[in-house]
Design brief:
Elements (H helix, E strand, L loop, with lengths): L2 E5 L5 E6 L6 H14 L8 H9 L2 H5 L4 E5 L10 E4 L8 E3 L6 E6 L4 E2 L4 E6 L7 E2 L5 E2 L10 E2 L3 E4 L4 E4 L3 E6 L2 E5 L1 E4 L10 E3 L2 E4 L8 E4 L3 E3 L3 E2 L2 E4 L3 E3 L2 E3 L6 E3 L3 E7 L2 E4 L3 E8 L2 E4 L3 E9 L2 E4 L3 E6 L7 E5 L5 H27 L10 H38 L3 E8 L3 E5 L2 E4 L4 E2 L2 E6 L2 E6 L4
Parallel strand pairs: 11-15, 16-18, 17-19, 18-20, 19-22, 20-23, 21-24, 22-25, 23-26, 24-26, 25-27, 26-28, 27-29, 28-30, 29-31, 30-32, 31-33, 32-34, 33-35
Antiparallel strand pairs: 1-2, 2-3, 4-8, 5-6, 7-14, 8-13, 9-10, 12-13, 14-15, 34-37, 34-38, 35-36, 38-39
Helix pairs in contact: 1-2, 4-5
């Protein structure tokens, strides 16, 4: 009769497909109930209930589409654990004057400065879900609730009874992965140069004046500079904030795990994991970031800029047609990090193959083995299980890295005032070389297999 009755893939519904419109609804209902009985659907509805459901889906029946005639009870999914922060420590948004709506590019909404004994966060435990029932009467388990991940790092105390985290010293709070730490602040009253020598600090660093040419500066936390950075090598585990500008930092010159804020960047190489925010201009520099490059009142001229989360500038290129390369939506660090993780997986899998080759030669019943060989086989199995778990974790880390990169990607360039000739934009492997001026505000985006220039009406 052309009628097919079957459970859905998750067994939370019974579906039917009909191609025979010569049968009455009552005949279809009787057949459906008969098939459901053979499928051992529980509880089995009566024909009147099935008939009422079919009558509500007359259009689908006439079109021979799938119709759901019975639903199970889906599980109630759990509420995953979360972190309840005592206040905003980490927001990278800039403070906006509520009256004038002007943006203060020297102040962030998040304030990482903390005092000894201050409550930083509480971990809210997950709530388990409730099982459902499929159409065959079997329990359907909910997903496993996930606890919020947070660990106490340097100078942070975890109170297990409260599941709360407290600062053990005054300084600047930092979150790297799932590790929460407080960096003590080292203050340099003048400049870093010949007098101070190179500086390495396991916390946050504040330099009142400049970081001079030839200096090497490294800090696990944020670095704040009251003046300028000149031809120096800088590594920061947090943000780099320069009240003046950055100039002449060559290849590998500046690497930060957070973001970079400066008045200008000139002839420098910068690698950052968060936003690069510049007030006035970025000139002849190489910028690589997983965040965005943001200079809405400044100009981006020359050099090469790669920003996963996009670029926004008042001006791209210059009147003198300086070649300016911009790539957006591409993660400049993903391939290298993926390669590092994969390099750990390959030897583990080779080791696993050797272990399984040995285990496969053993009899299925280990009781046949002498005691010593049985113990050795058990140790080998435990080692194989541990290696398998490690491979699964590494693969999960690679996938999480890929998903995070994908989520952060924003393949667009916003030019507020003017895009000049010799600006080259690459998105998704496609490159466009602009040979004419374009007045802003405009967006440069990927439209199919071409890069398009789209006006932004109303700015």
């Amino acid at each position: 009769n052309g009628i097919r009755v079957f459970p859905s893939r998750d067994r939370l519904a019974v579906k039917r497909v009909a191609s025979d419109d010569s049968l009455s609804l009552a005949d279809v209902a009787a057949f459906v109930r008969e098939r459901m009985e053979k499928l051992k659907v529980q509880p089995l509805p009566d024909e009147d209930a099935i008939l009422e459901t079919l009558a509500q889906h007359q259009d689908a029946l006439l079109a021979s589409e799938e119709t759901t005639v019975l639903r199970g009870q889906p599980p109630v999914q759990p509420v995953h654990g979360r972190i309840d922060w005592s206040r905003d420590f980490f927001s990278l948004q800039f403070v906006v004057d509520s009256e004038t709506e002007s943006v203060d590019y020297r102040r962030r909404v998040g304030d990482p400065s903390v005092s000894e004994g201050e409550l930083l966060a509480r971990r809210i435990p997950p709530q388990p879900g409730e099982p459902g029932v499929d159409v065959l009467g079997h329990a359907v388990p909910p997903a496993k609730p996930k606890p919020a991940k947070l660990r106490a790092g340097r100078q942070v105390r975890h109170d297990e009874e409260e599941d709360a985290f407290y600062a053990e010293a005054s300084g600047r709070v930092r979150l790297q992965g799932d590790i929460l730490a407080v960096d003590t602040l080292y203050e340099v009253p003048g400049s870093i140069g010949l007098e101070t020598g190179h500086v390495r600090h396991p916390g946050a660093l504040s330099v009142k004046e400049d970081i001079l040419e030839g200096s090497q500066v490294s800090a696990d936390g944020d670095i704040q500079v009251g003046g300028t950075v000149e031809l120096a090598t800088i590594e920061a585990g947090g943000d780099l904030v320069v009240r003046g500008g950055v100039k002449g930092a060559g290849a590998g010159g500046i690497e930060v795990r957070g973001g970079v804020t400066a008045r200008y960047i000139l002839e420098s190489c910068i690698e950052a994991r968060e936003d690069v925010v510049v007030e006035r201009e970025i000139l002849h520099s190489t910028i690589k970031t997983q965040g965005r490059v943001y200079t809405p009142k400044g100009r981006l001229v020359g050099g090469a800029t790669t920003a996963l989360a996009g670029v926004e500038a008042r001006q791209a290129g210059s009147e003198s047609s300086v070649r300016t390369f911009i790539e957006v939506g591409y993660d400049p660090f993903f391939e290298e990090e993926e390669k590092k993780l994969t390099a750990q997986i390959d030897p583990l899998e080779k080791q696993l193959a050797k272990m399984h080759a040995v285990l496969n030669t053993l009899p299925k019943t280990w009781d046949q083995l002498p005691a010593e060989r049985r113990e050795a086989a058990q140790r080998l199995r435990e080692q194989a299980t541990a290696a398998e778990a490690q491979v699964i974790e590494l693969r999960a880390n690679v996938e999480a890295l890929r998903e995070e990169s994908k989520a952060r990607g924003k393949p667009e360039v916003v030019v507020r005032q003017m895009l000049f000739p010799e600006t080259v934009v690459r998105i998704g492997g496609i490159t466009r070389h602009f040979v004419d001026k374009a007045s802003g505000p405009v967006r440069v985006i990927l439209d199919g297999d071409t890069i398009a220039l789209v006006p932004m009406y109303g700015g």
